[in-house]
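User: My instructor asked us to take a sequence, write out its structure as C-alpha cells, and then describe one feature of it. I'm not sure where to start. Here is the sequence I was given:
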Amino acid sequence: MDKNKRELNNDRSVSPEQQDIYNEIIESADEMAQSFFDSGLSREEILRREAENKEKLEMEAIRADIERRYSAEVEETMRSVEHISSADGGKPETAKLEEIINLESFTESAPVKKKKKRRVKRRKKTRYIDLDEKNSIYRFTYILGDLVAHFFKLVFGTLFGFIAAPFIRMRTSVKDEIISRRMSNALNESAIEAKAQRRQTRASFRNIFRSFRHPLSTPAVILHYLRKSFGRPVLRTALNYMLPLAAVALLILTFSYWKNVTFALKVIYNNESIGYISDESVFIEAKDMVLDRLSSNSITSEQTTGAAPGNLNAGYELAVVSYDKLNDARTISDKMIENSAENLTHACGIYIDGRFICALKNEADAKTVFYKILAPHEDKAEENGYVVSILQEIEYVQGLYPDDKSIMWEANELESYIEENELINIKKSVSTSEVVEVPYPTVTTRDITKYSGYRVVRQEGISGKKRVTTTHVYIDNELSTTYTTDEVIIAPQEEIIVIGTKTTYGGVYIGQASSMGFLWPAPHCHYISSPYGWRSSGWHKGVDLCTSNGTARGTPVIASRSGVVEVVQRSSSGYGNMVLINHGDGYKTRYAHLLEGSITVRIGETVEGGKTIGRVGSTGNSSGPHLHFEVIYNGETQNPVNFIS
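Assistant: Let's start with the prediction itself. The C-alpha cells for your sequence are:
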C-alpha cells in the first residue's frame, strides 16, 4: 500500500484533489487488509485481496486521469467560447459547441468565472469525478460493510472465547475430578478389601491350627473357611479370570506333550529292559536276525553256539515314550545278543540276499573278497563297453557277534565258501540305442455344418523322435532277459482332420463318406455292371455304376471329395462328356459318359464333396447309361471300390 502511495505521489500529473481521494481510498483498503489479517484470514487470502484492491486502485487512477484531461479540454473550450463571445456576442458559435460536446452542464447561462471558482474550491464533490460518483459510493459502502462485519466477527469471537473459557475449564476440571475420585475410591476399596482379607486369613489359619486339637472337626473348619473365602468378591473375580487362563495353559501343555510322544512296547528280555518298539513285528524281525547271527552256515542248528530259539521270547509292557527313543530291529537284535551269548565282539556281518553268511572283524576285508570276484569281469566290460555287477545283494552289517570260529571267519574262508557253493553270479548288461521316428496320430472331428464329402486337414501332423534303448542281460554269460526303454526326444504333433456329416446336398441324398473320405459318386446307382480290372475288351481302369432296372439315365453325379476341377471334356468318343477333379493330396477322380449338357462345373472351380457336377448319361464309347468312375493316386489308377465302399 505504501508503495502505491509513493507511486501516486510521484505522479505530477495528478491534481491535489485527486491525490486526497487516492490517499483516502488507499488508507481504507490498508485498514481493511489489516482487519482481515487480524480476523484470522490466511496469508494467501490477504495477498489475493491486496491484488484485487491494487487493481481497483489502478482503474480508479486511470478513470480519474481521463476525467482530468476531459475537464482540461472543456476548460480550454470554454476559454475559447468566452473569447469569441467577448468579440461579437458569439451565440451561434456557442450553440454549435454545445451540440458538439453535448454536455448538459454548459447549457446553463451561468458565467464561466463561477465554474472556475467551484473548481478552485477543494471540495470532495468536484465535477471531474461526477462520472463515477455513484460507483464510488457503492464501493465505499461495500468496503465499510465488509469492515463492520469482520469487526463484529472479531469482537463477538473474542467475547465468546472469554465467556466460554470458564465453562470449558469448569467442565474439564469436573471430569478430571470425577475420574480422580473414582480412582481414589477404587484404591481405597482395594486397600480395605486387602486389609480385611489379611485379617480373615490370619484368623482362619489361627482357627484351623486350633482345630487340630480336635481332628474330627478339622475338615469342617477348613470347608467353612473355604466357602467363606470364595464368597468374597476379590477372590471370586480372580478365579473368574485365572481359571480360563489355567485351562488354556493346560490345553497347550497337553497338546505339546502328546505331539512328541507315542504309545510303544517296552521289551523285557531275560528280565531286563532292552528298548522300546512301535509294534511286535519289530521284535520278530530282530529275533530272526539273532538266529542268523548266532548260527553258522558250516554247521547244523544243533551245534549253534549261543541262545536256543526257545529262549528268545520276550515280554512287553505298554509305555508312553518320545519318538527318538523307539528302536529298530537291528538295535534290538544287538541288545538281545548281549543278553544271550557270552564272548561277544564287534564285527561286520556278511549278508547275501538277506541271508547271514558269517562275520569278519574288518569290513574292508569283506569288501576286498567281493572286489576280487568282480575285478576280472570289469576289465573286459571296460574294453567292450558294457556294464557288469554282482547279481546278488550284498550287505555289510556292523554289530555284536559271538567270537566263535563257526561265525567269525577269515577273508580267505569266506572266499572259499562262496566259490564252493557258487553263491555269486556275474550280471552283464549290454545296451544298444537308436533314434527312431514316431508316427503322428490322426484325430478326426465331425462338423455337422459341412456336407458328407467335406474333408479338410485343419492341422498338419508332424512326426516325432524317440531314443529306443535295448538292453540284453546275461547271467554268467548266458542270456537271461531283454528289455527296452523309450526316451522321447521330440513329441509328435497330431493331425486334425475335419469331415462333414450332412447327408444331403442341394436336395440330393449323398450318404455318408467312407473311412477313406470318399462319397459314392452316383447316389442312385449302386449296381456295378463292370468292375475294376481285366475284361474282354482289355484293362478296365475304373468301375461302371448303373441301376439294375435301367433307370440310371439323368440321375445326379456328385463330387466324391472336395477338390479343384482340372479337366472338363465334352466329346462324343472315348470318355465322352467327362470331369476330372484334383483333390490336392495325390488323389484324383474321373467321372465319364455324363449326359449331354448336364455338366455344371468349369475348369479351376473349387467344389465341395457331394456337389452335383453332372448327370448319368451314355456319351462317348458307352453301351448304355452308366457312370464310369476312376480313382487315380500319384498317376496310377486304383480300385475305386476300396475308396468308396
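For the description part of your assignment, you could build on this observation: The first helix runs from residue 2 to 10. Try explaining in your own words what that tells you about the chain.
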